[in-house]
Amino acid sequence: MGFVDLIGMPIRRGEKMKIAKDSHTKKTNVRKNSSKVVFKITRQRKEHINNLADYLSNIAPSTTFGENSFSIENLAKEWRLSKYFRKQRNKKNDISYFLSNVFRYRKNTPKQLVVEIVKRGMRWKANQGEMVQESLLSEIAKEMAALGFPIEKELSALEHPNPSQLCPPSVAIINAFKALPLHQSVLQADIFNLFSSGHYNEAVRKSLERFEKLVQDTHAAPKLEYGKDLMAKAFSENNPSIKITPCSTQDEINIQQGIKFMAMGVMMSVRNPTTHGDRKQMNVGEAIELIGLASYLCKLVDRRLV
């Protein structure tokens, strides 16, 4: 049976070959156009792109574990520019490689892309409790102008979001925190939710509150005993109610006494100050370390001799 065109007329063999050839030619031209160099990267231009990547690396992560989190890689996917992004040795090189390809092959994209990176980067830094300085924006605008893409007007029009007092951790840190072998008294939903939302002070306070409650229950303390006084009695090296060592040698007595001072100290230097709502939020690293300390102390109570 012969080929038939759209109106039902037979298509001859020669015409069929011509149509196929024309179709192939169009597809080839599309591929050529998509890889056509529209901006030659000279040595001087490469230097400006490297400088630009260096400045942008201060306000934009190149990669992230969260699919919906802000990063250059995710922005490349969103703008259908993934083929221009490839992981390099470090963040600056990631961004430089990506920008070089965008400048080289996309005539009208570089300007809008850099403005978008700055816009989202300012929001990203604000979520971390920091504000992007005008001096940094000025340097970014200067490098773009040197490349023939003036964006000073566009950057001046961007809104400067106010820095947040809360700095939620990244998805990678949240997942790492979730995987920590913390004591069951500490690894509870309320503490995890506080930590994940950036309420580090309250997460630490609650974790130490749980430790204090565990000591009260184990020590069978009167209701009015709490804080450093409770710890001094419970972990005392002289007839302790929570004996961590046999306290029969000087070394064992020293260990018992050291744990007593540790428990007393954490109540005085961490738990009490975090009860004040006007206290500046600690950073994520401090929060993990202190929640880990609360967990360690809870495990010591579980492993007590009596």
Structure description:
By secondary structure, the chain is mainly α. It folds into two domains: 43-156; 171-302. The protein has 13 helices and two strands, in the order ββααααααααααααα. A two-stranded antiparallel sheet has the order 1-2. α10 packs across α11 and α10 packs across α12 (250-274). The chain is elongated and about 80 Å long. It starts with a strand and ends with a helix. Mean pLDDT is 87; it is low at 1-9 and 26-33.
Key attributes of the depicted protein:
single chain, 306 residues, mainly alpha, 2 domains, two-stranded antiparallel sheet, disordered N terminus
**Cα-based radius of gyration, to the nearest Å:** 31 Å
Uncertain spans: 1-9, 26-33
Strand content: under 5%
Helical content, roughly? 55-70%
Run of helices and strands? EEHHHHHHHHHHHHH
The total count of helices amounts to 13
* Main sheet: strands, sense, barrel: 2 strands, antiparallel
Looking across the biggest beta sheet, what order are the strands in? 1-2
**What structural class do helix, strand and pairing data support?**
mainly alpha
The whole-number mean of residue pLDDT values reads 87
Q: Kindly give the count of domains.
A: 2
